[in-house]
C-alpha cells in the first residue's frame, strides 16, 4: 500500500481539491467579470473572465482528470466546441465526417462546406476499410461519433485514428463523446487528438444549462484551442461552470442507473418483436466492436414500429416520457428524430442514409423501471402497435407487426 494509485472515476467525480482561502468544501462561485491588478506591473493570475475565471478553471481541472486529458476547456455549448475546433483549420481544408452525425454538427459542417470555407466528405464510418481508403494526406481533420444517434452506428475509433495518423501525423482526429460520457468511454486512450462533449446532456444531467467541454493531451493543440476561446469569448460563464461542477458529482450514479433501465427497455421492446437499435443488445451488428471500446451502451435507443402514424401516436401517448429533443437528463424522453432533432437534415439525405421515418428515440432516465415499462406499454397499446395477452401484465406486450 505504499504506492499511490490513481482513484477511479466515481471517486474523482466527487472529490473536491480546492485551494480556497476558507477551505470551501465545494468550488466557490466567482460571479464577476474583472479582477483588480496588484499593481501596474503585476497582473495577477486572473484579469478578465473571458480569459479566465477561478470557477471555470476549477471545472476544467476537474474535467481533465475525468476525461484523462492534459487540459480541458469549458465553453457555452456542444456546438460551441465544434465551432472552436473548426477554427483550427485553414480555408479550403478537406475533412472527413461520419454520415450519421448529430444534426447540429451536420448543419454547421454543411454551412461551411456550402460557403466554400471547407470541403466536407461524408462517409459511412462503420465501414473501416472504406474510411481508410478515403483518408489521404489532404485530409486535415476527421469527425467521429460512436455510437451515433438515433441510428446507433458504431465505428472502430482506434483503427481509423491509427490509420489517419499513419497517413498524416498532423491529421487531427476529433471525437464527439456526448453519448458515452467519460464513464463509459475514454476516446483519448484510443488515440484521438481532441475529444469534446455536449455537457448539456449527461455531464450536467439536469437540463438546466447549456455547456460543452473540449479535451486534449497535446499541449500545442490546447494552446491553439485556448487562443480561439479567448479570442471569440465563448468560455463558459462562472455560474454555468459552477452548476456544471455540481451536476458532475452524480454523473456516475446517473449513467449507471440510466443504462440499467435502458437495457431492460431494449430487451422489452426486442422481446415484443420490434426492431431495436441499441449497442448493448447482442443483436446489434457491431455489438462486439462496441464492447471492445466502451464499458457499456449508454441510455439512448431507437426502435421502428413500421408505421409513421403509429409512431406519432405512441410519442403523443406517453405520460412519464416527455416529448423533447436532447438526452442525458434524469428524466426519460421520447422523440421522433425525423420530425425533431434531425429535421435539419433534408428528407432526401435522410432517405439516402436509410433513416427510417417511423423511428422513435427513447432517452432513458433514472425513474422506476416498472413505471417506465408500464407507461410505454400503455402508449403502445393505445397506438395499436401491440396487444397484451393478459391485461395489466407488465413485460408482456407483443408487436402487431413484428419487424425482427
Ligand atoms: C446535443 C449534442 C451536441 C450539441 O451540443 P449542444 O450543447 O446542444 O450545443 C453535439 N453532439 C451530440 C452527439 C449531441 O447530442
Please give a structural write-up.
This protein has 404 residues and is an alpha/beta fold. It has two domains: 32-247, Aspartate Aminotransferase, domain 2 (3-Layer(aba) Sandwich), CATH 3.40.640; 251-396, Alpha-Beta Complex (Aspartate Aminotransferase, domain 1), CATH 3.90.1150.10. 37% of the residues lie in helices and 15% in strands. It contains 14 helices and 14 strands. The chain has helices at 9-14, 54-67, 78-86, 103-115, 128-134, 157-167, 181-184, 219-232, 238-248, 251-272, 287-293, 308-317, 347-352, 369-383, and strands at 71-75, 93-98, 118-123, 139-145, 172-176, 194-198, 212-216, 275-277, 300-304, 322-323, 333-335, 360-363, 386-388, 397-399. The strands form three sheets. A seven-stranded mixed sheet has the order 1-7-6-5-4-2-3, sandwiched between helices. A five-stranded mixed sheet has the order 8-9-12-11-10, covered by helices on one side. It has a two-stranded antiparallel ribbon with strand order 13-14. Helix 6 (157-167) links the parallel strand 4 (139-145) and strand 5.
Structure described in brief:
The protein folds into 2 domains: 32-247, Aspartate Aminotransferase, domain 2 (3-Layer(aba) Sandwich), CATH 3.40.640; 251-396, Alpha-Beta Complex (Aspartate Aminotransferase, domain 1). Helix content is 37%, strand content 15%. The protein has helices at 9-14, 54-67, 78-86, 103-115, 128-134, 157-167, 181-184, 219-232, 238-248, 251-272, 287-293, 308-317, 347-352, 369-383; strands at 71-75, 93-98, 118-123, 139-145, 172-176, 194-198, 212-216, 275-277, 300-304, 322-323, 333-335, 360-363, 386-388, 397-399.
Amino acid at each position: 500500500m505504499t504506492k499511490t494509485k490513481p482513484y477511479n472515476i466515481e471517486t474523482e467525480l466527487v472529490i473536491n481539491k480546492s485551494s480556497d482561502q476558507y477551505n470551501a468544501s465545494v468550488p466557490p462561485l466567482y460571479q464577476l467579470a474583472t479582477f483588480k491588478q496588484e499593481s501596474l506591473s503585476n497582473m495577477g493570475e486572473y484579469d478578465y473572465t473571458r480569459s479566465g475565471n477561478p470557477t471555470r478553471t476549477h471545472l476544467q481541472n476537474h474535467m481533465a482528470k475525468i476525461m484523462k486529458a492534459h487540459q480541458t476547456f469549458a465553453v457555452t455549448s456542444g456546438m460551441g466546441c465544434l465551432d472552436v475546433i473548426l477554427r483550427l483549420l485553414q480555408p479550403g481544408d478537406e475533412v472527413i465526417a461520419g454520415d450519421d452525425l448529430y444534426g447540429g454538427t451536420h448543419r454547421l459542417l454543411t454551412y461551411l462546406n456550402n460557403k466554400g470555407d471547407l470541403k466536407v466528405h461524408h462517409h459511412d464510418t462503420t465501414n473501416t476499410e472504406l474510411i481508410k481508403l478515403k483518408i489521404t494526406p489532404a485530409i486535415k481533420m476527421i469527425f467521429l461519433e460512436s455510437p451515433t444517434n438515433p441510428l446507433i452506428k458504431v465505428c472502430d475509433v482506434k483503427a481509423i485514428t491509427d490509420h489517419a495518423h499513419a497517413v498524416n501525423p498532423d491529421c487531427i482526429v476529433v471525437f464527439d463523446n456526448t453519448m458515452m460520457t467519460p464513464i463509459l468511454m475514454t476516446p483519448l486512450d484510443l488515440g484521438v487528438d481532441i475529444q469534446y462533449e455536449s455537457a448539456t446532456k449527461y455531464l450536467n444531467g439536469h437540463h438546466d444549462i447549456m455547456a460543452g467541454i473540449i479535451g486534449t493531451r497535446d499541449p500545442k493543440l490546447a494552446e491553439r484551442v485556448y487562443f480561439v476561446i479567448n479570442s471569440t469569448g465563448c468560455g463558459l460563464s462562472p455560474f454555468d461552470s459552477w452548476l456544471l461542477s455540481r451536476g458532475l458529482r452524480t454523473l456516475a450514479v446517473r449513467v449507471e442507473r440510466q443504462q440499467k433501465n435502458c437495457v431492460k427497455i431494449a430487451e422489452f421492446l426486442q422481446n415484443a418483436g420490434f426492431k431495436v437499435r441499441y449497442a448493448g443488445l447482442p443483436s446489434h451488428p457491431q455489438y462486439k466492436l462496441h464492447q471492445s471500446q466502451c464499458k457499456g451502451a449508454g441510455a439512448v435507443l431507437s426502435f421502428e414500429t413500421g408505421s409513421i402514424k403509429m409512431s406519432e401516436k405512441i410519442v403523443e401517448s406517453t405520460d412519464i416520457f416527455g416529448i423533447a429533443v436532447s438526452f442525458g437528463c434524469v428524466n426519460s424522453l421520447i422523440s421522433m428524430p425525423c420530425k425533431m432533432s434531425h429535421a435539419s437534415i433534408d428528407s432526401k439525405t435522410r432517405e439516402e442514409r436509410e433513416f427510417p421515418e417511423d423511428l422513435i428515440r427513447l432517452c432513458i432516465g433514472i425513474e422506476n423501471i416498472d413505471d417506465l415499462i408500464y407507461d410505454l406499454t400503455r402508449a403502445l397499446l393505445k397506438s395499436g402497435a401491440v396487444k397484451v395477452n393478459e391485461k395489466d401484465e407488465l413485460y408482456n406486450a407483443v408487436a402487431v407487426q413484428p419487424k425482427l
